Amino acid sequence: MQNISCPTEVPLALDCLKSLDTFGILLRSGLTLMTFISLLVYTEEVVYFFQKFPNPKKTSIIWVTGAAPVIGTAACFGMWIPRSTLITDLTSATYFAIVIHKFLIMMIEECGGDDEFLERCANDTLKISTGPCCCCCPCLPYPKITRRTLFWLKLGTFQFALLRLVFTLLSIVLWTNGNFDAYDLSITCATIWINPFVGILTIIALWPVGIMFKHLAPVLKSKNIIAKYALHQSILILSQLQASIINILAMNGVIACSPPFSSNARGTAMNQQLLIIEMFIITLTSRAFYRRRYEELNSVDQHEEDNQGNAKIQLNGPPLDGQDYA
Predict the structure, then answer these.
(1) Backbone Cα Rg of the chain
(2) Half-sphere exposure of 276 (CA within 13 A, CB side)
(3) Angle at the Cα of 149 (from 148 to 151), degrees rounded to 5?
(4) What is the pTM for the complete model shown?
(5) Sign of the Cα pseudo-torsion (252, 258, 262, 268, in order)
(6) Residues 49-100: pLDDT tens digits?
(7) Which of 3, 15, 92, 151 is the most exposed place for a label (fewest CB within 10 A)?
(8) Is the Cβ–Cβ distance between 203 and 135 less than 8 Å?
């Protein structure tokens, strides 16, 4: 009897409004206000970045800081219009795929760009045995940092930004034909084939970001790169892993249906409400770490500084080998 009384289709927006009680109206109004405040904070940040930061750097920072407001806004639209959930989720996923690439570019730009990065790290090597791909493979070689190595790192994140957009468009086309359903994991549905492949691409894209972060964390410590990376990973976990866990619970009947919402639709609504709150907090936290002025990194290499210091000691110190330089 419980399965018969539970709706099978996602309700319309008007049906959701009619089913709301006073608490539901206040809750959704508060969540919508949080989304609006997040957009205002992000807009103010964008104006600040345009005024204070140079062009290559500000573009990457604007993309990266926009992840939380964009995901929160998409979740807010999905909350009010449940049947738009597929579109809003795919939009958020596509945007964050671009953010992964932009975060890698941002770390390089914080070093002064490609040329400055290569000059600073010309004699360094990269530790590629990092997560999420090869953290259990310490025997991997340590490639030297060259322009070719930098190209492959950028390609590793760019491929995900491009292919995520391609798979998003493909999913929407298949959805219009009834061949794509986020809750249908049967072998005849395209979801079971597309999602694992997208997951593999995500892991491949996160690998270059982890490699670059491990190498530049000491260099960019003064620019709060550790906190920025933690926020970046938090958005990834909350927007991807949290949704997957809630969907699995809903499909297994752990989350009960509540007309006009089915179990799956109610689980999606819960995830959207949580995302709005979480992205609101991350937006305010990101403002504290991004909206500030930083001193530019010293362009002089550390080895050159040591050589200059040794030269000063020799010039100002006692004569060597008993020779008189007077």
Answers:
(1) 25
(2) 25
(3) 65
(4) 0.85
(5) negative
(6) 988 888 878 899 999 999 999 999 999 999 999 989 889 999 999 999 999 9
(7) 3
(8) no
